[in-house]
Structures are given as C-alpha cells and as structure tokens.
Design a protein that fits this description.
Chain lengths: 368, 134
C-alpha cells in the first residue's frame, strides 16, 4: 500500500478515445488459420470491403486506428474530453504524462505534443512513461503524488496505445487501439475520489520488445501465470484487505484486459460477479488497448456509475506489475459526464474492415 | 515546410489558434501582422472553437509528396463559425457522404511524415460533428 498523499486527490475530468475501424477476430483466423484452398467467401459486402453495422453476437473484434491516427492524436482527443468534463483552465495543468507502448517517436516526447495541443504548455512537466500495459496507470500514480503533495493543482495522465502485434501471432487477435486520459486534481472538485492506490511489481519476463524491433515477443502461457494472474490477483487482494472490503462491497471492478478469458477468470477468483464487471469489460469490442486497457474500461464505468459508488481498478503491465486504485464517485459525476462523448459512443461509431484494409492501415505491407 | 516554419505554426495547426482584431473585432485565421479586414495591426491571440461547416470540397486522387499513403482523401473549404475560411482535409468520412453545409468539428490528426526518419507533422482536420450533446 502506498502512503496516502498529503492532500486527497481525485479525478476531476476523464476522457476516452477509440478509433472507428473494427477488425473481427474471425477475419484474422480466416487469413491465418484456414487453408487458402478452403477459403471461398465470394464477393465481400459493402463498398471497398468496408462494412458498417453492429458486431455479430459471437463477434470478438478490435479497434484499429486510421491512417492519420497515432498515440499522440488519440491522446489529444482523450485529453480534450477530460478537459471538457472538468472545466479546468489548461494553463493550470502542471504535468502532461503519456503512458504507451506505441509512442510515435523513439526519442521526442508525446507529452509535449499533447501539452501544446491542449494549451497546457509551457509551464508544465511533460514526459512519456513506459511499462508495457501498465504505463498509463504508472502515470496516474505519479500524478497522484504531484497533486497530492501540493506541487501542482492539476496533472494529466494518459494511457493510450496503437498496439503492435506480429501478423499471424496470437496477439494479433486482440492488439487494439484506444485509451483514456484522467485529469487529477483536488478531491473536493472531483468526479471520483482516489481513496487508495498501490503498486505490485516483480522482474517477470512474459512480454517484451527489444530496441529496433517492430513487434513484441511473448512467453506464451507464461504470460498468464506467473505474469498476469501473479500480479493482478495479489494487487487486488491487498487493496481489498487493507481497505477492509469484500468483493461484494465494491460496486464496479475493471482489470487489465488482454483477452476476455484472463480478466473474467481473475475477477471471478476475487469474488466478483458479472454485473460488477460488465460495464468496464470492453475487450471483446475494442481489443486489448495495452496501456489504455484498464483506464478506458474505467471511463465506461464512470459513464454510468451513480454517486457514492466504489470502483476497483487493477492494471497489469508485463515485465511485470499491477497498479490498483480504489475510487469513490462523487455528486459531480453525473453533470460532468454529459460534457464529452461517452466511451460507448466511441465504441458505437464502428466501421468494419477486412484483413487487407487492416494491413494497409497498420502499415504491415512489406512494400509500403 | 522546414522544421522552423513547422515550429512557428504549431499552435495554429494543433488547435486553430488565430487572432481577434482589436479594431474591427473580426476573427483572423491564420494569425498575421495586419488585419485582412481593416488593415490595422492584428492580435491578440484567440483559439477558434473548431466548429464550422463545409463550404465546398473535392476528392484528391493526385496528391503531393508526403500524402501518398493517405490517398484518396477529401479536402474541404471549411467556414469556421467565427468567420474565417480554412482549407483542410476531412477525416472519419468518405467523400460520397460529404455535403455542402455539413457541420464539422476540428480534430488534431497526423498530416504527413517527413520520410521514415524525419518529423511527424500534426495539424487540424475536420470530421462530422461528434461532440456530446451540448
């Protein structure tokens, strides 16, 4: 358990971003698991292979960024949504921190681009965080410290990714795009008070990407246990134990979502029921948004939560570690949520693409 | 554009930062030294709302260097609600769904990349209005 900050901190504004394009997992398996001779689909529906409409019931799919989108542009829109919900003057923000595995530059901060675009420059910290899928919540922890110590009235923490995956790899079925921005400030003006937070880390090599490599590598089943379950479960357990809470006393829970199976198994093991996690479990619709995953799930919960509800958030980043946060929503939430598009509205603007368009959008064509 | 000129124009590209004329009170975009409406000195800085409507548009098939990867795309004249007209790409929409008079809003997107090792240039584009009911 981390020490509590000198001043209690809360989320004064939150914003999500999810790009429009959706690639169904069935389309990936059509290309990579079926024999070429057996694939006979006939002409595809819709113009240019693009289909609009809702996902089929069995459809698991992931969000794919457009040609003009990357972690910087997506962070800018999420940050603008967080600002719109807060009514904070961006010149009062003293830190713009972006956690991601897909920063557009290897050297040059995404944070300065976002800070400039939202009007927070120049009197601010700006930097990029790296901790696999935990980079976004690591930025939130640091922002709690900055605001809670009195060094800053407001700090912006973003978790955003355009997740990479090698064509044909198991990761490709879920590696999605999206994330969220949280603007932290004084608890008294917040939509959700951060009651407690903690971190839980170990040196566990389950997923990594070496410098210069385009795609990450992973240790197959090792990424489940001891990776994911070896950190998410004890972090959540410790949080509930130290807060003196049982799962039944928590209204909503969201954990990192690399696929559907892992988070559901983790939350069930912790004693939660589906009605506590259904609002924040987005992976079947948008994929694993890496550093954005737990945070964008949180935004979907904040979109529907009532005043005074408890929310448990547990992230997971390979390498490895989890951050856990216990939030309590306030009376400011209902009015604030109307000032920016909801996470569900972003999920709803859905354009289905085929694998060929995915290859173009993701820059995976060797002769690009 | 050079790195220096991109740097000078970053705030107008990222957030439509223009000016308001202190004499005739017209909104000015992009910012400049002299008001184009009354010829007095321009300023102070003013960030546009980002809302406007499509005044006209065209589909781009033959495109300049740096934009090849995105073609085809739609370029529009957008009349900002403050008055100035800007030329910009439309995004998140296909050309056949564009209509003159369509309400649009500014988003900051990737405009182009200066090759594999150069600067990534971000700036304003417009999409159909998506903001929450306000």
């Amino acid at each position: 358990m981390l020490n509590q900050p000198l001043k209690q901190v809360g989320i004064v504004g939150y914003g999500a971003y999810i790009p429009r394009y959706r690639l169904p997992a069935a389309e990936i398996s059509r290309v990579w698991t079926e024999e070429i001779e057996s694939v006979s689909q006939g002409p595809r529906q819709g113009k240019n292979g693009l289909k609009e409409g809702r996902a089929t019931a069995a459809g698991i799919e992931k969000a794919v960024p457009g040609l003009d989108e990357d972690t910087a542009t997506m962070s800018i829109e999420a940050a603008r949504n967080a600002l719109a919900r807060s009514k904070v003057d961006p010149q009062e923000i003293r830190a713009v921190w972006v956690g991601s595995e897909s920063h557009p530059y290897a050297v040059k901060p995404t944070g300065t681009i976002v800070a400039e675009a939202i009007g927070a420059a120049p009197a601010a910290q700006a930097a990029d965080w790296q901790f696999a899928c935990k980079a976004g919540t690591e930025a939130v922890q640091a922002a709690i410290g900055l605001v809670g110590s009195g060094m800053a009235p407001y700090a912006l923490a973003v978790g955003m990714d355009t997740a990479q995956s090698r064509p044909g790899d198991a990761l490709e079925y879920t590696a999605g795009a999206g994330g969220a921005a949280l603007l932290l400030g004084a608890a008294g003006e917040s939509v959700a008070v951060i009651e407690r937070s903690l971190g839980y880390v170990s040196d566990t090599t389950d997923f990594w990407r070496r410098p210069g490599q385009q795609f990450p590598s992973h240790a197959e089943r090792f990424s489940g246990d001891p990776g994911y379950f070896g950190h998410v479960l004890p972090a959540a357990d410790q949080m509930m134990r130290e807060a003196g809470l049982t799962a039944a006393e928590i209204d909503h829970v969201v954990v990192h979502q690399p696929n559907v199976k892992f988070p559901v198994r983790a939350m069930r093991t912790l004693g939660f029921e589906s009605e506590q996690w259904e609002n924040g479990l987005l992976v079947a619709e948008i994929g694993n948004t890496y550093a954005g995953s737990a945070l964008v799930g949180l935004t979907a919960i904040l979109d529907i939560a009532a005043e005074g509800q408890l929310v448990l958030v547990v992230s997971y980043g390979s390498g490895a570690g989890s951050d856990a946060f216990l939030l309590r929503t306030t009376g400011h939430l209902t009015a604030a949520r109307m000032n920016a598009p909801s996470t569900g509205e972003y999920i709803g603007r859905r354009i289905e693409i085929d694998y060929a368009h995915y290859v173009r959008l993701a820059g995976k064509l060797a002769a690009h | 554009m050079s790195i220096a000129s991109l740097w000078r124009t970053r705030q107008q590209r990222y957030s439509l930062q223009g000016e308001t004329c202190p004499d005739c009170h017209q909104a000015i975009f992009p910012p400049r030294d002299v008001c184009p409406y009354c010829s007095e000195a321009a300023g102070p800085l003013h960030t546009m709302s980002g809302r406007g409507e499509v005044y006209s548009y065209t589909k781009m098939l033959n495109v300049p260097d740096g934009f090849l990867a995105q073609r085809p795309y739609t370029v529009a004249l957008v009349k900002l609600e403050e008055g100035p007209m800007v030329t910009a790409q439309l995004t998140d929409i296909s050309e056949e769904d564009v209509e003159i008079g369509m309400p649009v809003e500014m988003v900051t997107r990737k405009l182009r990349e200066e090759g594999d090792s150069g600067e990534i240039v971000y700036g304003y584009k417009f999409r159909p209005v998506f903001a929450a009911a306000d």
